[in-house]
Write a structure and sequence with these properties.
Elements lengths: L6 H12 L3 H10 L18 H10 L5 H8 L4 H15 L4 H13 L7 H5 L2 H6 L8 H7 L4 H9 L2 H4 L5 H9 L6 H17 L1 H11 L5 H7 L5 H8 L3
InterPro entries: ARM-type_fold, DNA_alkylation
Protein name: DNA alkylation repair enzyme
Organism: Prevotella veroralis F0319
């Protein structure tokens, strides 16, 4: 049975297909771990690079939320990323009602934001920027979700806070998810800690010194990447 899609969604997917690269189409499923039991299991790729997806997204930045929702339901990874990049463009408008609608839509579709690139290219703007002047409670709810992508959205969204010098939630969420079982989260938390450390290196150093025995090694390596070789050697030393 042929999938029924609206003319606008068909046009967008056709544009993406026209930009398909055969080599990327072969490489992406392996790169994004789509094999049996892997975190991206079953996802399908057209083989379109992010710059090309951005181009298509900007051409269609005025599509409705209903069209965005339909794109998010696509089997194609790039179609979902295109929808998210349109949402990012829309979220830059100084329209509080629209930003709230985007935030709400985003968080109802996290099962479709189902790989690290989809999360990382979108959540800082749609979630983090929206919450800058609001309660962060929703992030703590996401951090306690059973869905890996909810957890990653929670920590990576704090990038928006870090850029404003607001570090508390990054450290609190890092503590909350310190023992997460998935390596993707170890990398994400380490990344955000590293970014927080750019704002206040002394605080990050003290944080790591206190927790290095419990911190997963991948998380630790990512977090201390910007310290000097001597400091990294001290922080990586097993205690």
């Amino acid at each position: 049975m042929t999938e029924s899609i609206s003319p606008t969604v068909k046009m967008i997917i056709d544009k993406l297909q026209a930009l398909s690269n055969a080599e990327k189409r072969e490489v992406f499923p392996r790169f994004f771990k789509t094999g049996k039991g892997e975190y991206g299991e079953g996802d399908l790729f057209l083989g379109v690079t992010v710059p090309n997806i951005r181009t298509v997204a900007k051409q269609h930045k005025d599509i409705s939320l209903d069209v965005i929702r339909e794109l998010m339901l696509s089997k194609w990874h790039e179609a979902r990323l295109c929808a998210l990049l349109v949402m990012v463009e829309k979220s830059k408008k100084k329209d509080e009602t629209l930003r709230k609608q985007l935030f709400d839509l985003y968080l109802t579709m996290t099962e479709r934001i189902n790989n690290w690139d989809l999360v990382d290219l979108s959540c800082r703007f749609i979630v983090g920027e929206y919450l800058l002047d609001k309660s962060r409670e929703r992030l703590y709810q996401l951090a306690q979700s059973q869905l890996l992508w909810d957890n990653r959205i929670a920590i990576v969204s704090t990038y928006a806070f870090i850029r404003k010098g607001q570090l508390e939630d990054t450290y609190a969420l890092s503590d909350l998810m310190m023992h997460h079982p998935h390596n993707l989260m170890h990398k994400a938390i380490g990344w955000m800690l590293r970014e927080a450390g750019k704002r206040n290196p002394e605080r990050l150093y003290a944080y790591v010194i206190e927790r290095r025995a419990d911190m997963p090694r991948t998380m630790l390596r990512y977090a201390i990447e910007k310290f000097s070789p001597k400091e990294r050697a001290i922080l990586m030393k097993r205690v």
